[in-house]
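sanity check this chain:
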Amino acid sequence: MELTHVRLLVDDYQACFYFYRDTLGFEVTWGDENSNYADFKFRGVTLGVFERRQMVEALGIVYVKNGSREDRAALIFKVDDVEKMYQEWKDKVTFITEPVEQKDWGIKVAHFRDPDGNLLEIYEQIM
């Protein structure tokens, strides 16, 4: 068995497509803004973004758009410099946290969400 990629199930597909392509700069390897599914490559990792309605219906469940949800997963990205990425992105994304050192973990982190509410973290090693 081989894990090939992570797929996010999203309610607002187009907004998420543009976010991962244009805001974060991920390369689109399959799909477009109208396909309701796209694969993105970023440093050797594939991230799939799929319209949640289609996945739910494929499972035989009636689709209901989520109003709010608890975080069940987070995408974690290692960067060279959290402060630098924070400054570059703060006008493009709404950060939940400012860069902060988590000394027990030996990292500096900052958190934000994609347009569908998925939690993302950037971090750098500080030890």
Summary: Strands lie at 6-10, 27-30, 37-42, 45-51, 74-78, 100-102, 107-113, 119-125.
